[in-house]
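User: My notes are a mess, but here's the protein and flavin mononucleotide's SMILES. Can you give me a structure?
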Amino acid sequence: MPPSTPPTTLTPAAPAPAASTTAASTTAAPTTAAPAPVATMTAPASPDEAARPLALALVVGSVRAGRLGPAVAGWFAGHARDRDDVHLDVLDLAAFPLPSDMAAVPGTPPERLVRELGERLAAADGFVVVTPEYNHSYPAALKNVIDTYREEWFAKPVGFVSYGGVSGGLRAVEHLRAVFAEQHAVTVRDGVSFHGPSAADFAADGPAGRGSPASAAALRWAVDEGARRRLPVTAALVWDAVGEPPAVFDQADGADRVGLERAARRVLADTVAAVRVPDPAVLVTERVAEGSPVPELLGIATGARLVVVGERGPGALHRLVAGSVCQGVVHHAPLPVVVVRGGTDRSGQSAGTADAADAAGPATTSVDERPVVVGVDGSAGSLRALRWAVEAAAVRKTAVRAVHAWHLDVPAYPGIYADFGSALAEQAQRTLDDAVNTIIAEHGGGLPVQLVKETVADGAARALLRGAADAQLLVVGSRGHGGFAELLLGSVSHQCVAHAPCPVAVIR
Ligand SMILES: Cc1cc2nc3c(=O)[nH]c(=O)nc-3n(C[C@H](O)[C@H](O)[C@H](O)COP(=O)(O)O)c2cc1C
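Assistant: No problem, the inputs look usable. Here's the predicted complex:
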């Protein structure tokens, strides 16, 4: 989850109370429906340029845990999304932790972040800066990004959406005007300011999404996880010229590329808008790409902590076998992948769907006491899965059930194999104990969650699927003991992805 990809939209439909359309005065009168300041951007010069949408970068300046910034940015993005003449790129500074000494070391992650952020700033025709007020000024992360770059800001308009206490962030904006002038940027007089808003002011039921139920469920799961882990989310839609996903082609006015791309953006935006703003708010950035879904999605997920994909459910097993996007991502992603099914999961809990009723359902932080179940077979992969499951359970404030399956595949002559069987049972218990003890040691002798150990005399996939019946999440390693390292098809993890009644995390 980081990140990975673009224009935001957290459901905001109604503006927060006390929004003012002027940044020039600190006595802004409350209005409803404050217009986004996108109309004030300079018009492109040539006829060719005039035909393309304005490239607007939305810079989200607050980065602290529990920040309101994503909800405010989502409100702005919701308005910008309704316009065909604007292409919004959301630059959430929480996803770009720039070094404060402005000296990125070549080859290190900060260097990549500095480069990517620079390219995206350079690609913008203009900026809208979303800023809170901290101690009568603006956040340090904003100063850092302004100072780190130079030509990227030159001769471009900068608009403001500010918020804070009684000041509505207007003192932060006044300071930013002086700073941006030093970078040859031109600040826009009019702005929007929210006085004393809360996340609830920006939450509203969005329109019903038009993406598939599975992709909407995956997005909702990702947004909830983003809220739990305080991470931004990128919602990505990849379309290809041969008709996938069908919703894009249903929505398009014509089959030309521009029309399809516009339809793809609309489908994604509507899907994002149907997901309720969680508390704390999460910044959702939208990214639309054309091409082959698996490589495009994995490219977008570069640098992310987690990829979440939707799967249509058990009936779609043939697609999985035939090489679906889901299978491709699970097979090739170098990072953890969570597979979420559309509609209601078989345990009776809502997995998140595209319909409005579900979008209005319980938000993120509603308590789900079901455990996280993890398969442990003693392999290095399953140890990573156990480590990840403990972290996932900790952010959910629930328990982990670590399941180790052992199987003596000789049903006849039980008398002969009785001793052998009990030796195997003891070995199974030792394997599970060793794995759990390793993780306990990593946590300094005590886990942040309750952990229950369970050894089961059965095949691994059957044991895990049974264990997942009352789980909110099943966690498995991408490979284990059994010789299927390179061939996911037929593996335990594949069986779990195909048949589990709850979301499945496949950990590398
Ligand atoms: C360190 C800090 C300093 C603040 N100083 C001011 C201030 O001087 N004036 C004001 O109106 N609000 C002030 N506030 C309130 C914030 O503007 C408000 O909580 C806002 O929601 C913070 O944005 P964020 O949640 O995106 O970080 C301050 C908040 C923080 C955390």
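Residues 62, 64, 67-69, 132-136, 163-167 surround flavin mononucleotide (CB under 6 Å).
User: Great, I'll file this with my notes.
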